[in-house]
Amino acid sequence: DTRSSTLGNDTIYALSSGSGRAGIAVVRVSGPGCLDVYRGLCPTKAPPKPRYAGVRTLFEPGFAHVPDANIVDSDSLILYFPGPRTVTGEDVLELHVHGGSATVKAVLSAIAKCSSPAKIRYAEPGEFTRRAFLNGRLDLAQVESLGDTLAAETEQQRRAAVRGNSGVLGKTYEVWREQLLLARGEIEALIDFSEDQHFDESPAELLTNVKAMVEQILHSIQLHKLGSQRSELLRHGVRIALLGPPNVGKSSLMNQIVGREASIVSSEAGTTRDVVEASLDIRGYLCSFADTAGIRTKSVSNPDETPASTIGAIEEEGIRRARRKALDSDVVIVLASVEPTKGGGHRISYDTETLQLAAGAQQCLVAVNKSDVVSPETLERLIQDFKSSALESTPGLSGKEPLTISCKAAASPPTPGLVDPGGVHGLTEKLVESFSHLTSLPGDMQHLLGVTERQVQLLSETEKHLQDFLTAAQTGGPDGEADVVLAAEHLRLAAAQLAAITGRGESGDVEEVLGVIFEKFCVGK
Ligand code: GDP
Ligand code: ZN
Predict the structure, then answer these.
(1) Closest ligand to 335 CA?
(2) Is there a contact between 334 and 243 (Cβ–Cβ < 8 Å)?
(3) Domain endpoint, select from 391, 406, 439
(4) Residue 303 binned pLDDT confidence (cut-offs 50, 70, 90)
(5) 251 CB near ligand 1 (under 6 Å)
(6) Domain containing 61: what range?
(7) Ion ligand 2 — residues with CB under 5 Å?
């Protein structure tokens, strides 16, 4: 077996619990030397019963007889799991020791001093998981989702990653692969023995059935790709662009959302004319928020504004970027605001182009800021005007209900009994709603959130070969038999791509795939 030859017989160990101050640290040992390690640390007591915890004092190897000296840790909890039904598929020893970094260091160096016929060494990053894969405890799709689980920083990332852990995806790809290989075998038998007439189904029937099966798999591949697209949004974050003319309150709104509704993951400062980006966690969704330079075109509905011709080059560059931002965002928030007019009245300042950009986005919200500057009655009238003039005339936005907000009210000290002054909280709720629309999948397809980018690439390859199969299997060609040979070959190629997803089957480059997947892992996993 090529797999066990790549295993090596080393016994590996590492700190498996998280870093930082904690009460307990877990050191994991895996390999044939586990009991040697145990005996090195605890020579006076028998190991605990398999899978039961035992309390032990750990000694410096070779010094257990010296009273009180050289105790490495006391009251450690020890668990011994004999292979092969363990996390790695090998013998595993778990030492739950006191959490201080000095204790951990002493335990690790004591393990290194234990003697065993099997080499004992510190684990490489991801080596425990690699062994689990090589011993058939996990398939590659599960290994990947484990990597995602460990990397998850937001609640929604965690949920997407956990979907892939179950092994359902890997099993699905295995079923497809077996179906394809079986069909290929049948087609080849048909090519070789079709004169014999001993077939249950006619060659035409067989091809028709295989084609139907291939169509079914092609349809499922589409769903799997959709699942990956959705979880991509969870993994890499939903991109939100905040658009509107200058001074409507974009920066104020962003500050309100960041300040009260989200926690910043990272942020990038920029000038007022540039796009300012921040990575946020809004209710468990990772988002990147871009506050753009105000879009100000000739169509700005403000007669008092500077004419477009005086817009400076720097500002134009900012506007160009804002436009691009809008185009590659998942959610666009268009902001308008209530502004005084020269005549002593009020109007809503908005930008027509911004509205058009928003209408083209997958999800969009329209909000009118500075609701505090007019009476509720005036606000109501202005909003009705805004709806019938601006929104009705923009395709895709007619019927849209704008939210009214006041960043100023939201920023003022809280008044007892007043819920959500300024309405920024409500706007955030709407945002979260749009995130859940963007990332939703039917209930019975939640596991498809576990489909990774690597898997999508292989699924696309599979798809190509299956399309080629369908082309080759088309009847009526001048050279019918050669087409069937080609069709069978495409089934084989498609099956090989599926094998690469789970790392099972005859795919050749398992080691290469392992390298790519495991480089993301940390030591101890
Ligand atoms: P931006 O250019 O769109 O980013 O707008 P800013 O956030 O820089 O705000 C422009 C001006 O409007 C600033 O003077 C803000 O203090 C003011 N402003 C923002 N939000 C409100 C609000 O809700 N009510 C009032 N009255 N003023 C606001
Ligand atoms: Zn701004």
Answers:
(1) 1
(2) yes
(3) 439
(4) very low
(5) yes
(6) 2-136
(7) 250-251
